[in-house]
């Protein structure tokens, strides 16, 4: 859920007022119980309640989904603020809070000293600072900070009993610290001796709340014990009296000595327990530690008033990194809209009866009600009333007042909705990537940078942004046109160039992506942090440019008058890629083979036809589409198989016998291979099984595959003495695995492949005196050609070849539009082998599953069942999808497992979602 009803918790401290908070909540308080504070947050002392538990428990299940990645990293997976309604019926203790650095040192010091966290003499309960801000809901009175030094000097002079303290006091730095330490060190008898005559005189007169004298008497009435006066009253003579009118606020930074005296307000603070008391209390006072953290900068405190922030919202200025507080006013016909929550918010209704709606539905927000809003949520508040909004400050750079969406790395590069891939965002990321390489001295100004793209409708515009970024960064763009991703990388590697591919691979056409490669090969996971840092620098610079200097309009798109044409097209990339295979495979090695190329919208569709014909095959191109069709080679649906059967039938009418239907995904780095049996039936061959045969054809002596690959890989290569290295899912991990094997030595023919069929070569390979240079990236053409040549050499059909492999059959499927936060919560829930055992209640004997024999948590949740079934659950790395990979002893059983998992609305995956 994105909007979560929040049930606050009440603190009944003795100083609390008995009326304000009960009235806000609509509760009767006939007993007159003090209601001091209403807590909304995840503070461990009193976390708010949410459906099914506490807010702290909700955060613990998946902090990144609830708080967002930036806030999770910055605040150790914790909600960094606590918001309260505070209602004081009488004065609170004098106190100050440490800075973050002071808290960290103090916390470690007391830990080393062995002082228990709950000990009354413990000053530091956690290693965090505690800035806070209080916004008044009623007239609110407080002592805040030391008065100006000149005013203190005048008081010391005017009040006879203070002369002894003020002796030698001069309004200069250091004097106030000395004075305060003297006051705190006075024997109790001397405190009484000074205060008794002062208070006696004050009690003979009447003062209103605007006067300090009123509060000195009030504090003494509350805190005097057994005829002894609290030295905090003496300290209060040195402090500013502040009266806040409703709507006004005061910010209390580190070291500000203060005491709330009376009134009600909304208080927001860092979620910390660090309070050092300095009087007006019976609790422990550590004079020396307090004096070390108190700020002795005298002056009049700043009273804050909320300033306009956006339509319907006013915000209080705050330097705190942990929190921000604003006031939202909603009236009929003037709703409030927030397009993108950053880091989680809490909404508190002070007046009115409101409706808050998001994509998940509508929640009523009555007076005194509160909601928790998770990261990334867009919502709308309608009705009439006043809402206080607590949030984490969004310090991300803004572009002309807007905060554009930012692309994120998946397992195969940057991905995002086309609507979010503005020219500005593509430009910033491309320049950041190039600056990263420049800083590493992998490229130099003036070098050529190769670029290409797939056939998506959005690709040409995005290529224009890439080209501009390359040129503006001081490089030369070499445009290789619309060619496969591996063809671009092959060309770039051959010339030691950086490259940029615009492609969304197999995902739907409303999304696209950008894939970067270094001169040495693909960008790996170890590169991402450095690239993101460089991108952040470029982003800050570009966002700060004046409109007259920038090529971008306010919406982030390149201004028409500043647009540039794409560079001249070079055919060198497609030609060298074609030559790679014509020079390696035997001339006319496919003579006599009849192959259908299902072209659809694959960018390599014409290259594949040309290469197959160049090797002697008779080729029939079919179903060429000018509209983009997403083909996922891991998820071939029954509908797609029926379409392929239709193609086979039509092809037979043209060619007679056919041997295979082949195709690729959108950027032609993942193959689709369909064998044709002697009876004419089509048989889809899974990518991991295809990879076994290709590795066999290439005589591999070491294999690297992701953990999602079929166990047929182990069953085949194990007896043959070929080591199999398992990695996380994604080509960067497979490449890293191949590099590690290459560095280790002892292997001459290293290959890798994925369950989607993409094949990678980690070392140069030789066959029959011909050489194939390493291409460590997913490739679709190599596995297609290799398996067809293997079938030709053995004079077998493709189904006959695959029948020789271990009888293990795979099937993959996915739920599209599956919320990433739900996927993360699911993985978090079952992140240990003990928790995984609980999955037996979902994968039941009724559905044909045996007991869970073991599990692999390398990447996702891979379950091995007694009886041989395998089920692997994993979110997609670059799309809002939850995938299921199944392996079984028959194709029917593998299909059945996927069907059980994906069934709507109560299949296994949906049940797991509802349970997490």
Description:
This protein has 916 residues and is of the alpha+beta class. The protein has five domains: 1-146 and 241-324, Jelly Rolls (Sandwich), CATH 2.60.120; 148-237, no CATH class; 408-570, Alpha-D-Glucose-1,6-Bisphosphate, subunit A, domain 3 (Alpha-D-Glucose-1,6-Bisphosphate, Chain A, domain 3, 3-Layer(aba) Sandwich), CATH 3.40.120.10; 573-803, 3-Layer(aba) Sandwich (Alpha-D-Glucose-1,6-Bisphosphate, Chain A, domain 3); 809-914, 2-Layer Sandwich (TATA-Binding Protein), CATH 3.30.310.50. Helices cover 32% and strands 26% of the residues. It contains 28 helices and 46 strands. Strands 1, 15, 16, 17, 18, 19, 20, 21 and 22 form a nine-stranded antiparallel β-sheet that branches. Strands 2, 3, 6, 8, 9, 10, 11, 12 and 14 form a nine-stranded antiparallel β-sheet that branches. A hairpin with a 5-residue loop joins strand 45 and strand 46. Helix 13 crosses helix 14 (459-472) and helix 20 packs across helix 23 (781-794). The longest helix is centred in the middle third of the chain and has 20 residues, at 525-544. The chain starts with a strand and ends with a helix.
